[in-house]
Amino acid sequence: VPFIVKWPAGVKPGMVSEQVICTTDLFRTFASLTGYNTGDDEGEDSYDISTLFSEPAPETPLREATVHHSINGSFAIRKGEWKLIMCPGSGGWSFPRPGRDAEELAKLPDIQLYNLTDDPGESNNLQAQEVEKVEELKALLISYIQEGRSTPGQPQFNDSISFKWKQVDFAQMD
Prior knowledge:
This protein is α+β, with helices and mostly antiparallel strands.
């Protein structure tokens, strides 16, 4: 989804970045722009993206990966060109929907993996062919949950250590 900024006093016209950002990044970005010093326990998944407004984007990503959380509580993680989804379907509004289309969801694999460069429409699930990539991204997602954050800093308390991904307990995922 494109992110468009118009701020004549702070954004050079025509700036373009291919960096992956997330709405959670707005917290640390606005804090930085207003001079607020965030604590280690604030915005644990937020990156300050304000440098992208005025400087050429760095070659290396600002964030290692981006965690997504659907309306029904399902998790996904994107790292580079890869996106791992820890549920069948979208986990949200589109068909097949959790709680409404159980028969269709039962036909789908519990885990989905897509190469977004080759398949931006997420139509070719590679989870069976790319087992190592699935394990890498799943381990990263679990570490973020256990650490209570995806940014550098002290581990933070998480609401629960028994997240449910379909009928699989978080404790059984490692």
